[in-house]
Amino acid sequence: MTTEYTNYIDGAFTARSAATLEVTNPATGALLARIPDSDAAAVDAAVAAAKRAQPAWEKLPAIQRAGHLRKIAAKLREHRTELARIIVREQGKVQGLAQVEVDFTADYMDYMAEWARRLEGEVLTSDRPNETIFLLRKPVGVVAGILPWNFPFFLIARKLAPALVTGNTIVIKPSEETPINAYEFARLVAETDLPAGVFNLVGGRGATAGDALVSHPDVNLITFTGSVATGSRIMQTAGKNLTRVNLELGGKAPAIVLADADLDLAAKAIYDSRVINTGQVCNCAERVYVERSVHDAFVERLTALFKATRYGDPSVDADLHMGPLVNQIGLEKVEALVEQAKRDGANVVTGGKRADLGQGFHYEPTLITGARAEMDIMRKEIFGPVLPIQAVDSLDEAIALANDSDFGLTSSIFTRNINSAMQAVRELRFGETYVNREHFEAMQGFHAGRKKSGIGGADGKHGLYEFTETHVVYLQTP
Ligand code: NAP
Question: Which fold has domain 253-442?
Answer without folding.
Answer: Aldehyde Dehydrogenase; Chain A, domain 2 (3.40.309)
